[in-house]
Amino acid sequence: MSVLDKIETYEKEDVLIAIRAAMSMSKRFEEDMAVLHDLTVVPLKTNDEPALEIVRYDGQPQQKGWTIG
User: Fold this and answer.
1) What are phi and psi of 13, to 5 degrees?
2) What are the residue ranges of helices labelled H in the chain?
3) DSSP assigned state of 25
4) Is residue 64 domain-resident?
5) How many CA atoms lie within 13 A of 56 on its CB side?
6) Is residue 12 in some structural domain?
7) Is residue 61 situated within a structural domain?
8) What is the layout of strands, in order, in the sheet containing 41-43?
9) Are 34 and 54 in contact (CB under 8 A)?
10) 42 within a domain of the structure (yes/no)
């Protein structure tokens, strides 16, 4: 089964939530994250299985506090 076949078995919204979570976690932990076949998100450095998606840390630290305006 290919990666595309696995992605198509999930609801589109579930996949988007997992990717958004990986993006947030990447900024929070300042490291690359992997979205796995069951839509869990783990640090890429600890992953030992094929990932559906890899989210790379962009090097920008997470902003502290809230910005209003």
Assistant:
1) -65, -40
2) 3-8, 12-29
3) H
4) no
5) 2
6) yes
7) no
8) 41-43, 33-35, 53-55
9) yes
10) yes
Determine the length of the chain: 69
Predicted structure pTM score: 0.75
Per-residue pLDDT of the chain (69 residues; tens, 9 = 90+): 555 565 567 788 898 899 999 999 999 999 999 999 999 999 999 999 999 999 999 887 666 555 454
Q: What domain range includes position 32?
A: 3-55
Tokens read off for 35: 């979205």
Q: How many CB atoms lie within 10 A of CB 5?
A: 8
Q: How many independent structural domains does the chain possess?
A: 1
The b/e string for 29-58 (b: 16+ C-beta within 10 A; e otherwise) is eeebbbbbeebebbebeebeeebbbebebe
The token pair that represents 5 in the structure block: 């076949």
CA 51/CA 54 separation, integer angstroms: 7
| Three-state DSSP state, 19 | helix
